[in-house]
Amino acid sequence: MDVDIETIQKLMDKLIEFVIAYGFQILGALIFLFIGLKVAGWLGRKVFALCTRKKLDETLAKFIGNLVKLVLIGFVAIITLSNFGIDIAPLIALAGASAFGLTLAIQGPLSNYGAGLSIILSRPFIVGNTITVNDVSGVVEEVTLAHTVLVGEDGEKITIPNKQIVGEVIVNSHDYRIVETRIPVAQTTDMEQAITILRACLADHPDIAGDPAPQIGVHDFTYGGTILGLRYWVASKRYYQTRYKVNEELMASLQSQDINLLSVPGLALEAASLSADQEGR
């Protein structure tokens, strides 16, 4: 029992000596770490706010703000380790060797980060733009280093890895999306009258963009009739809603003037051949 008490007493003496010798150094290092992290976060937010006031793209502003924050955190960590009396040279060498091995192990995710950096710096699109990539369309909600998030018309979120974007054909229609429609009518139809009716239906329509103006004309010819083509721009967030509404109005306008769609008894026209959209191709 006396031996145990003596051992505990020695441990307490060692602990007290350690606290006296290094207590203030450790406390100072922890205080410096806490203040440094707070300053890094504050400065990162200030840089982001400054970039925003300069009307810099939101994604690029976030990237610059986070970069400043990470650099400061790195400096704070190095200084804190030095205050603890830890030699950081071996740690740097170990980090370099680990980074090399880690690069080989996670080269897939890293390629996303590289592609994300390319998107942020080159800015082929920004938040709020409507883009189409690999037959996927949506409004850009967020661009990070790893992925880009699009929002569809129904509110669904579409997450695309950035490596699937870089190197692909990107269609950026900004706030609008084009509607391309084909209407087959009989060969005996007065084309000038039909085009005039369709143009009047699209003119000054509240849901159709005026610039560029809608385009209407003879698109193609088919057995027993003619195909009229229409091209007009609508807001991306109401693409299908507007398209269906306009189609109903076009049909009603033609029927009110006794102009019917092409009807060829005994023959069938493939629906895809009458669609000008890129969907389903």
Automatic annotation (TrEMBL):
List each copy of the Mechanosensitive ion channel transmembrane helices 2/3 domain by range.
66-107
Q: Which Gene3D superfamilies match?
A: 1.10.287.1260, 2.30.30.60, 3.30.70.100
What GO MF annotations does this protein's record show?
A: mechanosensitive monoatomic ion channel activity
Chief localization class?
Answer: membrane
> Which InterPro entries does UniProt cross-reference here?
LSM_dom_sf, MS_channel_1st, MS_channel_C, MSC_TM_helix, MscS_archaea/bacteria_type, MscS_beta-dom_sf, MscS_channel_2nd, MscS_channel_C_sf
The answer to whether the entry has keyword Transmembrane is yes
The UniProt record lists the Mechanosensitive ion channel MscS C-terminal domain at 179-260
Q: Which UniProt keywords apply?
A: Cell inner membrane, Cell membrane, Ion channel, Ion transport, Membrane, Transmembrane, Transmembrane helix, Transport
Presence of the UniProt keyword Repeat in the record: no
Q: How does it sit in the membrane?
A: Multi-pass membrane protein
Q: Any idea where this protein resides?
A: Cell inner membrane; Cell membrane
Q: Which residues cross the membrane?
A: 20-43, 63-82
What family is this?
Belongs to the MscS (TC 1.A.23) family.
* Function, as annotated: Mechanosensitive channel that participates in the regulation of osmotic pressure changes within the cell, opening in response to stretch forces in the membrane lipid bilayer, without the need for other proteins. Contributes to normal resistance to hypoosmotic shock. Forms an ion channel of 1.0 nanosiemens conductance with a slight preference for anions.
Query: Which PANTHER family would you find in this protein's record?
Result: SMALL-CONDUCTANCE MECHANOSENSITIVE CHANNEL (PTHR30221:SF1)
Q: How does it assemble?
A: Homoheptamer.
The name this protein goes by in its record: Small-conductance mechanosensitive channel
Taxonomic lineage is: Bacteria, Pseudomonadati, Pseudomonadota, Alphaproteobacteria, Rhodospirillales
